[in-house]
Amino acid sequence: MTWDWNAVSDFMPYFWHGLLVTLQVVALGSLLSFSLGLVWALLMRVPSRWVRWPVGVVTEFVRDTPLLVQLFFLFYVLPEWGVTFSALTTGVVAIGLHYSTYTMQVYRAGIEAVPVGQWEAATALSLPRRRTWTAVILPQALRRVIPALGNYVISMLKDTPMLMVITVLEMLGRARLFSQASFQFTEPLTVIGVAFIVLSYLASLLLRALERRLVR
């Protein structure tokens, strides 16, 4: 086996296109999972069981089924019912929905970690419920959950190759396409392997910096 730098050079245009798609999926999927996870967590604290029970069933079902199965269902089954999305949109929705059930538990732990005295102080000051959440509880809870949320960003990044099964050409999809055309597998797969390591490391550095800033 010999290393061919010309193959690397030929692969790079494919790589940049795949990298752009990967970053789009991670950014939009993270935004969806963080937002929806917070909604799930807040709904699970609603006193009515008619709200908590359906939310619990849905989130438990999503968390207990593989992401790959969800991708196939959203992309191949929903169109039979008249619901059709592009491959990229389907991938973002699937990843965001799947990981929202995990971020929900992270938010729940962060909210429960806020000292009881903070709730009592807000009540003593007669703060409205909405103000209590936005000014007192959530700012403290979010500072506690940043490291865990950061881990899920990296997990989402590493799960993006699954989108290849629904024709999304992210980094691995582009590498596979190039390899099938050129019969050179070592160079493109090595490039995307290094890219995943670099992206994961940079994401961890950014999240650590954000964590330090929020702590201050």
TrEMBL record:
Please list the residue ranges annotated as the ABC transmembrane type-1 domain: 19-207
Entry-linked Pfam families: BPD_transp_1
What SUPFAM superfamilies would the database entry show? MetI-like
Query: Gene Ontology terms, cellular component aspect?
Result: ATP-binding cassette (ABC) transporter complex
Primary location: membrane
Task: Give a yes or no for keyword Membrane in this entry.
Answer: yes
Transmembrane region positions? 20-43, 81-99, 189-210
Keywords, in A-Z order: Amino-acid transport, Cell membrane, Membrane, Transmembrane, Transmembrane helix, Transport
Q: What start-end ranges are recorded for coiled-coil regions in this protein? A: none
Q: Name one GO molecular function term.
A: transmembrane transporter activity
Q: Which Gene3D superfamilies match?
A: MetI-like (1.10.3720.10)
Membrane-protein topology: Multi-pass membrane protein
The record's subcellular location field reads: Cell membrane
CDD domains xref list: TM_PBP2
The family this protein is said to belong to: Belongs to the binding-protein-dependent transport system permease family.
> PANTHER family, from UniProt?
L-CYSTINE TRANSPORT SYSTEM PERMEASE PROTEIN TCYL, MEMBRANE COMPONENT OF AMINO ACID ABC TRANSPORTER
The name this protein carries in UniProt is: Ectoine/hydroxyectoine ABC transporter permease subunit EhuD
Identify the taxonomic lineage of the organism of origin.
Bacteria, Bacillati, Actinomycetota, Actinomycetes, Kitasatosporales
Q: Which gene encodes it?
A: ehuD
